[in-house]
Design a protein that fits this description.
about 475 residues; alpha/beta; Rossmann fold; Four Helix Bundle (Hemerythrin (Met), subunit A); four-stranded antiparallel beta sheet; about 50% helix; globular; binds adenosine monophosphate; binds zinc ion
């Protein structure tokens, strides 16, 4: 397996620290809003990578955090007049729902920053002891960036070029820093903000220290892969390396994988630019699998521009696969005969496409080429299978197709059960909204269900529902 490593700017053969095991950390979202489809890109691509590694027989320890204390969360809480914890909990749960609909499997562990404060205080204390950090008069603790000689090795920046930011930083009132390049590890609380006790002041951690600490706690000092969107290379991941390597005295992550942006009109989709589409907006209009298919239709390191045309193309592509699966499954219901000799030979022919699929995935997780191999398999199945084929042949072909689809996290067979539980959950939410007299939300849910092809009927016995397409 070759992985493009941001650290070395090379595609490198993957060699795990411990044979047969992958220790992987993926930076997760800051939970102050519903996730947008840009946030969904790393979730989907690295989930697919994980599935492939598991298919290859690796045991993958996959850790992905929720940043649940942050300025944006506090701002949102103040706007709503609730505490920060309420906001973080609400959007963590909502994020998990979106991940589920996109078939993103839960991580082995989803640590939350607010539950790991002790570990952060420990690591910051170690950094101070080792001379890599210092506390200023007001209790802010800074990382002494120049004390970590390799600083800049991930983003390929020269530390002296970074000094150009100096003037800018001076006006932000951070004169108490020894050096403008120093970054915050711990900051004092402001009025009305959540805080924790620490040896330096009542306050809260900086963002970067969270990931260094959570990665250490759940995966150890040295990990195989650290991943996230490319906007995290600098400063977030650069700072994580500085903190972890300075504190632990060991190399941190061997491979750094970064996905390119999901754009809209060729501009990065982001909450701050207000050009975002929520995952749940899209899956009200399309099958969530189509969004997943769309994300995988480009290599994860290529920018991907969202457009209605590309989504339509993804929808058509995905339908070609589900139709093929439906055909196989219909013919597979025939009982009786074993495969004919001709069918056995034809079945062996599918190996070529599995090999192509694997070769694409081995080449730095090239899901675009992997999907092309799946299309070739679909074409091959459609020409090999007809109404006179045996059920056994159809079943064997379907197994090959679903084997590859599973690696991509695509469900080709409609799952009535999964849909049912989603519908039931929405109906329950609508019931609560009506009780709370939040009729706008109740109507919104009715419309969302309608878009999913579900019609509701309010009867005296309660709410009933039926599929309308
Ligand atoms: P955030 O909540 O902004 O910290 O982002 C969570 C994850 O989503 C990080 O890995 C980001 O790099 C990634 N991300 C955010 N916006 C985009 C985008 N437009 N395209 C791809 N990845 C993104
Ligand atoms: Zn992180």
């Amino acid at each position: 397996m070759k992985i493009y490593n941001t650290l070395t700017t090379q595609k490198e053969e993957f060699k795990p620290i411990e044979p047969g095991k992958v220790r992987m950390y993926v930076c997760g979202p800051t939970v102050y809003n519903f996730i947008h489809i840009g946030n969904a890109r790393p979730m989907i691509v690295f989930d697919t990578f994980r599935r492939y590694m598991e298919y290859k027989g690796y045991e993958v320890n996959y850790v992905s955090n929720f940043t649940d204390v942050d300025d944006k969360i506090i701002k949102k809480a103040n706007e709503e007049g609730v505490d920060a914890d309420t906001i973080a909990k609400r959007y963590t749960e909502e994020c998990k729902k979106d991940m589920k609909s996109l078939n993103v499997r839960p991580a082995t562990t989803h640590p939350q920053a607010t539950k790991e404060i002790d570990g952060m205080i420990d690591m910051i204390s170690t950094l101070i002891e080792k001379g890599h950090a210092y506390a200023a008069a007001d209790g802010t603790v800074y990382f002494r960036t120049r004390s970590f000689a390799p600083y800049g090795k991930l983003s390929h920046k020269n530390i002296d070029d970074l000094r150009s930011g100096e003037r800018e930083l001076k006006v932000t009132g951070e004169e108490q820093k020894e050096d403008p390049l120093d970054f915050v590890l711990w900051k004092p609380k402001k009025e009305g903000e959540p805080y924790w006790e620490s040896p330096w002041c009542q306050g809260r951690p900086g963002w970067h220290i969270e990931c260094s600490v959570m990665s250490k706690r759940y995966l150890g000092d040295e990990i195989d892969i650290h991943a996230g969107g490319e906007d995290l290379i600098f400063p977030h991941h650069e700072n994580e390396i500085a903190q972890s390597e300075a504190a632990n005295g060991k190399p941190f992550a061997r491979y750094w994988m970064h996905n390119a942006f999901l754009n809209i009109d060729n501009v990065k989709m982001s909450k701050s630019l207000n050009n975002f589409l929520l995952v749940r907006d899209i899956i009200g209009k399309y099958d969530p699998q189509v969004l997943r298919f769309f994300m995988l239709s480009a290599h994860y390191r290529s920018p991907l521009n969202f457009s209605a045309e590309l989504m339509e193309a993804a929808k058509n592509g995905f339908e070609r696969m589900t139709e093929c699966a439906a055909k196989c499954s219909r013919i597979a219901e025939k009982s009786g005969d074993a495969m004919t000799a001709e069918e056995t030979a034809a079945h062996a022919g599918t190996e070529e496409f599995v090999k192509k699929f694997e070769a694409a995935m081995e080449d730095d997780c090239n899901t675009a080429d992997a999907l092309s191999a799946m299309f070739e398999l679909v074409k091959y199945i459609n020409t090999s299978l007809n109404e006179n084929s045996t059920g056994a042949f159809a079943k064997a072909l379907l197994e090959k197709l679903t084997l590859l689809a599973d690696i991509c996290g695509l469900d080709l067979m409609p799952k009535a059960e999964a849909l049912d539980s989603e519908v039931e959950a929405l109906i329950a939410e609508r019931g609560q909204a009506r009780k709370d007299k939040n009729f706008a939300r109740a109507d919104e849910i009715r419309d969302q269900l309608l878009a999913m092809g579900i019609e509701l009927k309010d009867t005296r016995e309660g709410v009933t529902w039926k599929r309308i397409n």
